[in-house]
Amino acid sequence: MCVQNVNAESLELARSRYQAGRVAFENGQYREAVENLEKASALLSGNSRFGGEVQIWLVTAYEAAGRTEDAIALCEQLKRHPYSETSKQARHLLYILKAPKLKRPSEWMTEIPDLGKLPENESQVRISVKPRPATSTKKPEPEFVDLSQVNTKDNRFIWLALIVIGLILGYLVWLNV
């Protein structure tokens, strides 16, 4: 009875660590995600379905945290997992992790400035927004177009289209007589 209590407690603790790890991962806190998922994995049997799921998440957290070698090593172990879905996912992840890294052209990248390097008093971003008037009843003023900039040359296509439409309408009227 005491063994079941300990197992139930460790399972519950593992679930809470697993959830905390997933939340941290989804929030971009990869180091914290790795810590929580490693602790959850240590509390579970690696051959169980839930243990495999935790380890798959741990693989992705390792990769996101820049620990690619650890991710590959864990994937190699998980390829032989008794639960087929886990081993299938491990093989797919291993394929992705071992794929050659492509270089991206610099013009595809956007550099994000490190705001942590700003002095304390400049760390707050000031945004000035012009307040919009509350649903005004004024109509917007018409925008005037400079006709000297507009191509007013005769377009023969329009005349051709009008003649064709006229002929079609005349033919339809003649058919109905």
From TrEMBL:
The keyword Membrane applies. PROSITE patterns: TPR (PS50005). SUPFAM superfamilies: TPR-like. TPR repeats lie at residues 14-47. The chain crosses the membrane at residues 157-174. Keywords: Membrane, TPR repeat, Transmembrane, Transmembrane helix. Pfam families: TPR_19. The keyword Transmembrane helix applies. This is TPR repeat-containing protein. It comes from Tolypothrix tenuis PCC 7101.
